[in-house]
């Protein structure tokens, strides 16, 4: 090949590379041109720095890739590397231009400013949980439903009533698992926590019905943070089918309950479903079936997924830190010794004495950060820390950089319950249940479930994992890839 031919080939390769560079620049600029064109120079300059990714998909590929890599923090790290350490960045996620927030100060301002930022969720989540659920209803409707559901979930009287039921189910489950040999620990925990939340909301249902519904919820949950692609083979498509099946089953339960209450003139009141059927606004308007079913779908999903995962991680951390396990076990042994003669069962009084166990749970909540992303939407143009946040843009609150900030929590990757000794986190630095008016109403119930489980586990059992170094998956929630495969071993006293 002659010199001219080589030079000519190099020329064309250079042109091709130039065209590809320009094409990439154009494609990476499409979202910016679409969503920033009407702001004017001053507002554009005050937007947070960032990258709005590719047309339509935005930064979703990068987000999913980071989560699948086993290092979800690399997603934010890429922004820090390119644009410097900032409190917020602009990006394009879940089909909308967005601002992602990563510092306590900025999070606090957004959480508590209901006038400028409303609660929202990606399209996939709204469709799957329901447009009449807490995720989508207005501020006033949310306040009304929250008031209705808060006491039956986390009120002192409710927790007192649930304690005995939870303990009975936990004791039975641990005994059964210890005889089953190898199990998927997380899968079994999901079944346990689902039975508990079903009892609280709907009362007793058949074991077969609960098992079918729990499987549908697992499918639905995988679609909550997926891209809203309703095509066979995609996670979101399967999740929509699961929702349809859940609506059918819950509609049958609601209809049957209405008939029962009509026959007894509304005298039968035993669970949350009865409360939802009774509630009415100041004009006497009651909830319709769609509103009740969407509320049930939301609570039944959140109420068992979070508890199951957090019980699993608490158990794993305690089992892998013998010094913490020893302290926690000694506390539980002392609690048993201090019980009044003949009591034999846990009460809220014992639950309140589990001081070290409470620190274990808080440390697990911090380290795992079960739901590491929540969503708001700007209802008007706003400004935070000198940055412009346009009306209609979504705000993503990313908890992990806060919970893993070494300036707030020294050696943040270490499991250290003692870091909570006499430590009260400042506002915006500990957000496992959110903050502001949308603070999770089920936090006390979740902690009660975890504490009762750990009490009996610490006293009588140990976990032997098949694959202690199993990779961790972060979507839809943080868990071992093998679902914590292992055995529950009963220990001799």
Which SSEs are present, and which pair or pack?
Layout: H1 3-36, H2 41-46, H3 60-68, H4 73-83, E1 88-93, E2 96-101, H5 104-112, E3 117-119, H6 123-129, H7 139-154, H8 156-180, E4 182-184, H9 185-202, H10 207-223, H11 235-263, H12 272-278, H13 289-320, H14 322-337, H15 348-352, H16 355-368, E5 373-378, E6 382-384, E7 387-389, E8 394-398, H17 400-403, H18 443-460, E9 461-465, E10 472-473, E11 479-480, E12 485-490
Parallel strand pairs: 2-8
Antiparallel strand pairs: 1-2, 3-5, 4-12, 5-8, 6-7, 9-12, 10-11
InterPro entries: Cyt_P450 (IPR001128), Cyt_P450_CS (IPR017972), Cyt_P450_E_grp-I (IPR002401), Cyt_P450_sf (IPR036396)
Keywords: Heme, Iron, Membrane, Metal-binding, Monooxygenase, Oxidoreductase, Transmembrane, Transmembrane helix
GO cellular component, one term: membrane
Gist?
InterPro entries: Cyt_P450, Cyt_P450_CS, Cyt_P450_E_grp-I, Cyt_P450_sf. The protein has 493 residues and is of the alpha+beta class.
**Number of E-state strands:** 12
Taking the alpha carbons of the first and last residues, their distance comes to 84 Å
Domains (count): 1
* Low-pLDDT ranges: none
Transmembrane segments: 6-27
Subcellular location: Membrane
InterPro entries: Cyt_P450, Cyt_P450_CS, Cyt_P450_E_grp-I, Cyt_P450_sf
Membrane topology: Single-pass membrane protein
């Amino acid at each position: 090949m002659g010199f001219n031919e080589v030079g000519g080939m190099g020329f064309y390769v250079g042109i091709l590379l130039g065209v590809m560079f320009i094409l990439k620049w154009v494609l990476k600029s499409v979202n910016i041109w679409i969503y920033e064109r009407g702001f004017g120079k001053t507002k554009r300059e005050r937007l947070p720095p960032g990258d709005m990714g590719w047309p339509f998909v935005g930064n979703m590929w990068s987000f999913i890739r980071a989560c699948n890599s086993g290092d979800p923090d690399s997603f934010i790290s890429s922004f820090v590397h390119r644009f410097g350490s900032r409190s917020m960045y602009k990006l394009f996620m879940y089909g909308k231009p967005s601002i992602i927030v990563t510092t306590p100060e900025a999070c606090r301002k957004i959480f508590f400013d209901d006038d400028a930022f409303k609660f929202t969720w990606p399209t996939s989540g709204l469709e799957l949980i329901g447009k009449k659920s807490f995720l989508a209803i207005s501020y006033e409707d949310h306040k009304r439903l929250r008031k209705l559901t808060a006491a039956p979930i986390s009120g002192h009287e409710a927790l007192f009533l649930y304690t005995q039921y939870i303990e009975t189910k936990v004791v039975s489950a641990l005994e059964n698992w210890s005889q089953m040999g190898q199990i998927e620990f997380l899968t079994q925990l999901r079944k346990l926590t689902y039975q508990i939340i079903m009892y609280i909301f709907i009362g007793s249902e058949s074991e077969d019905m609960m098992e079918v519904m729990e499987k549908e919820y697992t499918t639905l949950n995988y679609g909550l943070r997926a891209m809203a692609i309703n095509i066979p083979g995609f996670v979101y498509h399967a999740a929509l089918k699961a929702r349809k099946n859940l609506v059918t089953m819950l509609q049958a339960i609601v209809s049957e309950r209405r008939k029962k209450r009509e026959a007894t003139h509304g005298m039968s009141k035993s669970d949350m479903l009865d409360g939802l059927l009774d509630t009415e606004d100041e004009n006497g308007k009651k909830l319709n079936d769609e509103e009740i079913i969407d509320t049930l779908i939301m609570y039944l999903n959140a109420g068992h997924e979070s508890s199951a995962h957090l019980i699993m991680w608490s158990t794993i951390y305690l089992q892998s830190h013998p010094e913490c396990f020893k302290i926690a076990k000694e506390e539980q042994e002392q609690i048993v010794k201090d019980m009044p003669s003949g009591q034999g069962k846990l009460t809220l009084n014992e639950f309140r004495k589990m001081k070290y166990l409470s620190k274990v749970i808080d440390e697990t909540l911090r380290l795992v950060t079960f739901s590491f992303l929540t969503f708001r939407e700007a209802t008007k143009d706003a400004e935070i820390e000198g940055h412009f946040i346009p009306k209609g843009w979504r705000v993503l609150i990313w908890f992990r950089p806060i919970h893993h900030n070494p300036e707030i929590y020294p050696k943040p990757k270490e499991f250290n319950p003692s870091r909570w000794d006499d430590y009260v986190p400042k506002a915006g630095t500990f957000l496992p249940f959110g903050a502001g008016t949308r603070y999770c109403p089920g936090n006390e119930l979740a902690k009660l479930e975890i504490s009762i489980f750990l009490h009996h586990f610490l006293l009588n059992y140990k976990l032997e994992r098949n694959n202690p170094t199993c990779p961790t998956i972060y979507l839809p929630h943080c868990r071992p890839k093998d679902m914590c495969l292992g055995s529950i071993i009963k220990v001799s006293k």
